[in-house]
Amino acid sequence: MRANRVFSLQVALPIALMVVLATALLMSTADSVYRIQEDLRINARHDAVSTAYAVARSAERASLGPASTLASDLTSEASEDNVTLIAMIDPDGTVALASRLAWRGEMAAKVIPEFDDALFQRVVAGHVRELVESADGRRIRVVVPFDERTSEARIRNLAHGAILVDMDLSFQMEAASHESLRPA
């Protein structure tokens, strides 16, 4: 009977050790993927806000005079990694300029997917930025205000529009997951 117990211990101990090590390896890999994806989200939030503010400043400069580079600034920012759309929305909710030319002159609620008019109104009325993330953290939407300035009134006036920037991190997150699972 004693020989049987020793044999069981000789087999059970290495198996238990392998299970513990495999569990630790899986947890370490999952933690690595989570940390990489969280870093991607943090960087994307920063990039989305920076992009939106850059276009907003360009829109404000464009409202001051004819020598504007607004369209080229918007196009340049729209070509950045992860950016799926950028739209300049007038105070009345009309798309003034967007990364999709067909949207010009259309109501934002009609052409922009998942456009939240209440969020737009909060940004315009409160002159504050809003950042919204999808539940899975793969999509980020930033809406920042801009002031339309005229040569007659160069200080803030009541005509506030907004710049909307959407970013999609799906590709980068999938690539990070794939890369972390590859053998070294």
Offer a concise description of the structure.
Helix content is 52%, strand content 18%. By secondary structure, it is α+β, with helices and mostly antiparallel strands. The protein has a five-stranded antiparallel β-sheet with strand order 2-1-5-4-3, sandwiched between helices.
Walkthrough of the structure:
The protein is an alpha+beta fold and 184 residues long. The protein has one domain: 2-Layer Sandwich (Beta-Lactamase). The chain contains 5 helices and 5 strands. The protein has helices at 2-62, 70-78, 108-111, 117-126, 170-181; strands spanning 83-89, 95-98, 130-133, 139-147, 160-168. It has a 5-stranded antiparallel sheet, sandwiched between helices. Helix 1 (2-62) packs antiparallel against helix 2 and helix 1 runs antiparallel to helix 5 (170-181). The longest helix is centred in the first third of the chain and has 61 residues, at 2-62. It is elongated, with a radius of gyration of 25 Å. It starts with a helix and ends with a helix. The model has no long low-confidence stretch (mean pLDDT 84).
CATH fold label:
Beta-Lactamase
Query: Which superfamily, in CATH terms, is the homologous superfamily?
Result: PAS domain
Radius of gyration: 25 Å
Strand order of the largest sheet: 2-1-5-4-3
Shape: elongated
Overall tally of domains: 1
Based on DSSP secondary structure assignment, what is the total number of beta strands? 5
User: What is the helix fraction of residues, given as a range?
Assistant: 40-55%
Taking the sheet with the most strands, its summary is:
5 strands, antiparallel
CATH architecture descriptor name:
2-Layer Sandwich
Strand content: 15-25%
End-to-end CA span? 46 Å
CATH class: Alpha Beta
* Secondary-structure element pattern, one letter each: HHEEHHEEEH
The number of helices is 5
Structural class: alpha+beta
Overall mean confidence score, pLDDT? 84
